Structure formats: C-alpha cells, structure tokens
Amino acid sequence: MMVSPFTFYREAARIMAADLKDKEATALVMETKRASLREPSAGAADAAAEQLAEGLARRGGPVRRRAARGLRELGALDRAIYSAVAATPTPSLDEPLRRLSNAANNSGLWLAAPAGLGVAGGGAGRRAAVRGTVAIGVTSALVNLAVKSVWSRQRPDRAGVGVPLWRNVRMPTSTSFPSGHAASGFAFAAAIGRDQPWLGVALRFLAATVAYSRVHTGVHYPGDIVVGSLIGEGTGQVVAGLIDRLSPPRRSAPGPETGDSGGSRTPDHLAK
C-alpha cells in the first residue's frame, strides 16, 4: 500500500508534536518537584502560626479573619526570603558571615566587650559593661526559657532548600523562634548605648550583621531575627533604665573651694 508524501509528513508531525508535549509535561513535573524541595514546608516551619491562624479564622469576625490572612501571608513571605537568600551566590560573604555567626555563640562576642570597656572606658565604661552584661543575661532567660517554650517553631530544612554546605554552622537543637543571637546582640547594644551613644550605634550595626548571618547560614528564618532583635532592643532599654533607677546617685568629688558638707568656704581675707 502506497502512502502519499502528504500523509507521511502529517503523521510524522503529529508524532513529533506528541513527543514534544510529553517532554514539556515531564520538564514541568520535574521543575515543580525541584521548586517544592527549595521551598520550605509551611506545615513543618509554621505549625504554631498556622494553628493560630486557623483558631482566629474559626472564631469569625472580619478583624480575626484579616489577622489570620495576614499571619499566613507573613509566613509565606518569611519562607520566600529565606529561600532567596539560600539561592543567591555570595562566595565572598559566606566565610566571614559563617565565622561571625560562630563567634556570637553563647554570647561570646558580646561578653568579650565588657572587659575592654571596664579597662579603657573609666567609670562610664564600667557602668556600661555592667548594664550590657545584665541585659544579656535577662534577655537570654526571657527568650530561651519563656518565648521559645511558648512558640515552638521548627528549624529550617536548609538541606532541602539548598543552603550551600560551606555556609553551614552547627544547627542548634532549640526551637527557631525567636533568634537568641539577635536578641542578645541588640540587648547588649541598647544597654551600652545608655552611657555610650555612639558605641551603641556601632554595636547595633554589628548586632544586625550577626542577626543576618543566622539566616545566611540557614539556621533561622528572617522573621526569627526580626522578632529577636525587637525583644533584645526593648529588654536592653528596660534593664538599663532599671539599673539607673536602682543605682545610688553619683556624687562629684569636693573641689578646693568646697568643704565636706558641700558648702562654700569663706576666703581668709574676708573672715575678719
């Protein structure tokens, strides 16, 4: 049976079109799978937030529904930023940020500063060092013993999202929300800034860099460090204010024209 050239080319074109569609469908499925691996799981990352959103939605009312919608959108934005940071190549930043993140473990970076302040800063430096150290202790207790136990957010799946291995630091065993590194850094900077304003500004920049390094190395979501920074800043301000109120007022040393009682002494040529 003879097949006309027209029929032959038509059948060949149909087969090629079907094969192309199969390849496109396969590529779409593979891309979807890769995207699902890069995107952190909303259920694993934000179980507590999702439960809160569902509870608000069940209670009804326009305000609660808007709040529930806002919580879900913030969670999606949080995960999207985390994924974008993981996917962005930054070879010149990876090692410095990894080292900085490790240096701030157990507040080591911040606890080393009070020694220098106490030696070089005089009385004001010693007062600032005490404030900063107390602020770190109070903030660490507040974050690790109170907030983390109430809001149990799982740590990010940095391997599934694709955080480069050379960025990795040790993944903490505690829950993710909020960031203790960010809270301690901003608490220390806020307390120090009470007596040393310019030093407080510089320390806040350093604290912000430490906070970002926790996202860069894959151990925190951006929302964790934002809330941790706010908690630290507020706690540092409160602790510094309380220490000021509880400390006795400082007295200036009596001058050559001032007696022990603080009154002025009459010059000898007038005392006749």
Tell me what you see in this structure.
With 272 residues, the protein is mainly alpha-helical. Among the domains are: 8-38; 91-246, Orthogonal Bundle (Vanadium-containing Chloroperoxidase, domain 2). It is built from twelve helices and no strands. It has helices at 5-38, 42-45, 47-59, 62-87, 91-103, 108-111, 113-120, 122-150, 158-161, 180-192, 197-216, 222-246.
Describe the protein's topology.
Elements: H1 5-38, H2 42-45, H3 47-59, H4 62-87, H5 91-103, H6 108-111, H7 113-120, H8 122-150, H9 158-161, H10 180-192, H11 197-216, H12 222-246
The helix tally amounts to: 12
Mean pLDDT: 79
Q: For the terminal residues, how far apart are their CA atoms?
A: 147 Å
- In the predicted model, the low-confidence regions spanning at least 5 consecutive residues are 25-39, 257-267
CATH architecture of the domain at 91-246: Orthogonal Bundle
CATH class of the domain at 91-246: Mainly Alpha
Number of strands: 0
